Amino acid sequence: MTAQTPSALPFRDPQLPLTKRIDDLLGRLTLDERIAFLHQFAPAVERLGVAAFRTGQEALHGVAWMGPATVFPQAVGLGATWDEDLVRRVGEAVSTEVRAMRARDDRVGLNVWAPTVNLLRHPLWGRNEEGYSEDPKLTSAIATAYTHGLRGSHPTYWRTAPVLKHWLAHNNETERDLTSSSVRPRVLHEYDLRAFRETVEAGAVAGVMPAYNLVNGRPNHVSPYLEEHLRTWTDEDLFVCSDAGAPSNLVDSEHYFDTHEEGTAAALRAGVDSFTDHGTDGSKIAARVRGALEQGLLTEDDIDRAVRRQLSVRFRLGEFDPAADPYAGVEDFDTPDHRALAQEAAEQAVVLLKNEGGLLPLAEGTRVAVVGLLADECKLDWYSGTLIHRSTPLEGLYERFGADHVTFAEGVDRVRLRTSAGTYLTVPEATGAEDEVRGAEGALDPALLAGRTDLPPLTADADGTELALVDWGGGVLTFRAPDGRYLSVADDGYVRASADQPGGWVIQETFRLEPHDNGHLLKHTGTGGYVSVAADGVKVAARNEADPEVFELAVTEPGEEAVSRAAAGADVVVVVAGNDPHINGRETEDRTTLRLPEHQERLLRAARAANPRTVLVLTSAYPYAVDHTDLPALLWTAHGGQAAGTALARVLAGDVSPAGRLPQTWYAADADLPGLLDYDVIGSRQTYLYFEGTPLFPFGHGLSYSGFAYGGLSCRTDDDGVTVTFTVTNTGDRTADEVAQLYFRAVDPSVPRPRRELAAHRRVTLAPGASAELAFHVPRTAFAFWDVTLGRHRVQPGAHELLVGASSEDVRLTTTVDLKGEPAAPRPVRAHGLDAADFDDQRGTEIVDRTKTSGDAVTPAGAGTGGTGELLFHDCDFGAGVTRVTVEAAGEGEIEFSLNGGPVLAVLPLTPGTSGPYDYRTLSAGIEAAGVHDVHLRLRGPLRLAHVGFSG
């Protein structure tokens, strides 16, 4: 028999059903080939004509890490647009550029790791820039739009295959691979799962990526929720890709398993299909899988299940049907449409927070002083592509108002660093490399500067170089030479002026001044070494390897002086403040405060003192707490990508009326924040859903240059839900967008419920005097909450208030509807007992893993140091009576049982076990209880309580 050529094999036949094609290809792969497919870099199978495949192309707000690409606003900025149509178009542009870049460079992958749908629960999270909102409804709406754009509209073939990040309850970088998020069932189902679920159910998601952290004591990479929840939401084959290095973390840092064979097998059985570990080297993962097979920890069926899901994605991407793939050969890259869309997105993302006295928009002919550390910056973040075009606020204002009407003062401190020998640090010219260092127009070339070792290192001489010093807060400093080059440390340890911006996975451009004797040591944050001056140049070394230099910091001009001069001569001052996305808040680093860095506060005070007509523009990846008492105007925008400056200038000038809305609460002070690791949004009253204080600015807030009136509210209720209709009218004299928002709340909830909860929204454009009638259908299921007594969602019968307005606090119209539902009932504890994690309230406890594969238990927080905790279960029905209480628990300590806050009725002591934390034992004690009561349990010591039962 003549062997078939690869092109004639059945899996190449597009007329066959997808499942048969996958079966055919899977059946032709050897075991070794299938195992190799489990790594991120799946090798080619040349005998079958199957190309190599790489999972994971970063595409959060443009194509990242692959060179020049269109750069759109950060994800939190896209969330601030509240505009699904815009975000869908951004997704289309990004995925089109992925395809175009793939055609030129096969390193570019079509399995894109975007969007991030982690909820922005805590504003100090370092990766706040990557999410869309603190609200699950808004997050899922924006994420669904982006994934639809990434996927494309063809019924069979996908332009790219989006993977959602990061599953699950992930909001801290601090020890992110070690910390466990304690997530009670209500928070799990009403909050954390919801953004993922609604996006997956919309049908444009190829898979998810588990997060580094643990949830309820169990690493996300072995989460039973992948099968119990995620894969029940769709009929598609969802492809689960691990985060980088996380498979090894299961053993190396988390110590959850004793061997890598155990960890790899557990992750594969839990539903992880692709292992991102050890870079491009797949041999270590392959060896672990083979070892797990040999030890009986895995079967070939486990491997085939994962490979099948990868193949499903590859078929949907058209890999095996190049002639039929509608996206093959796409060349649309950096097109005029993409550039215009980047500007439109940046304009829509601007949020006007305050505008007293009509200071904005700026009139024609206004003399503007633009000042601040970000006034002439167009910052990128870790997930940005390389800019092809860039626009800073200064450039945008020059373009809009004319260079003769704009003055500029960056506001950096000018300093010299004097050595103990009386010399000063000096930056040599980049002799012999000028043409490479600077492009045709004299601009620094970022591709050539970062990490260079061929440029001369710093020296010390009698004159020295005046450096620009920026204090980014928390003592973190950058130094910049007069020609714009940042001081940086390369692998050889020498300090050079060799970077256009701070950047990289480990930032090499940041330093700290540490007081020492009568001066300061200069510590390099990237390596932890100290700066010393040697005959061959300035270098960084460990303190015990070289004598660190003791510097005297001589300030030749404080930044405030330049700001004051510029502000005093202008009609209006625009202070541009905020963050550098690579410093003091980014992946691997959480923020420590909501406050602006002191340096930037000084500049703001100087500007306001010199000119009260001051506008503060916060350009940042996250919220700040700023004192705006005597500030007439305040705007916020996330870092806006390549068109940020043009967009900001057009908003300031009134060419565009701002209509961005805050996607998360802006708190007034650090004291308003919960603990970074407190994931119980209900119990600790987090986000706008539960926060009972007064925010600096509320969720959904944003002003306009026009005014809008709301009216004509009507509701129609049926078995499917509620249809809400109202009218929005532009009462101003200019065309503008309004974001109409619909919220609801249960009037008399039986359990703690949100103060108000977003049900729907719409961004509309209205001409002066024009009206739009908006209609929203809110499904009955949207009003449900997770009832821990039933283990499912339940709609509470009774009154629910509907609130319509311009923000969560700016409510213009209200009405009340009466919903049919399922009445609350006491817990049937005699029949079913109590799962410990299904508490109604708690104090001093956390949820942990019942076993390594499934289930939850409860332990006192700090149990290892003899902690205590309490659990409360409301309305427990003991029927005609019970005479015994039984607990299933592990560890050691004791459990006290009481009713209604009364005396202790039983104490169940747990003596030390012998088989570790999962050695559950059953203990019982006599009690007398009948009827309905609240159950109180007090836990003492390092124990795990899984279940409480009753009998007799």
UniProtKB/TrEMBL annotation:
Organism source for this protein? Streptomyces poonensis
Q: Which residues form the Cellulose binding type IV domain?
A: 827-952
Q: Which domain of life is it from?
A: Bacteria
Q: Output this protein's name.
A: Exo-alpha-(1->6)-L-arabinopyranosidase
Family (UniProt): Belongs to the glycosyl hydrolase 3 family.
Residue ranges occupied by any Fibronectin type III-like domain in the UniProt entry: 738-808
Query: Is Lipid metabolism a UniProt keyword of this protein?
Result: no
* SUPFAM superfamilies xrefs: (Trans)glycosidases, Actin-crosslinking proteins, Beta-D-glucan exohydrolase, C-terminal domain, Galactose-binding domain-like
According to the UniProt entry, its GO molecular function terms are:
alpha-L-arabinofuranosidase activity; beta-glucosidase activity; carbohydrate binding; xylan 1,4-beta-xylosidase activity
Q: What does this protein do?
A: Catalyzes the hydrolysis of a non-reducing terminal alpha-L-arabinopyranosidic linkage in ginsenoside Rb2 (alpha-L-arabinopyranosyl-(1->6)-alpha-D-glucopyranosyl) to release alpha-D-glucopyranosyl (Rd). It is not able to hydrolyze alpha-L-arabinofuranosyl-(1->6)-alpha-D-glucopyranosyl (Rc).
Query: Keywords in UniProt for this one?
Result: Hydrolase, Signal
Q: Which GO terms describe its biological process?
A: arabinan catabolic process; xylan catabolic process
Gene3D superfamilies attached to this UniProt entry: 2.60.120.380, Galactose-binding domain-like, Glycoside hydrolase family 3 C-terminal domain, Glycoside hydrolase, family 3, N-terminal domain, Immunoglobulins
Cited InterPro entries = Actin-crosslinking, BXL, CBM6, Cellulose-bd_IV, Fn3-like, Galactose-bd-like_sf, GH, Glyco_hydro_3_C
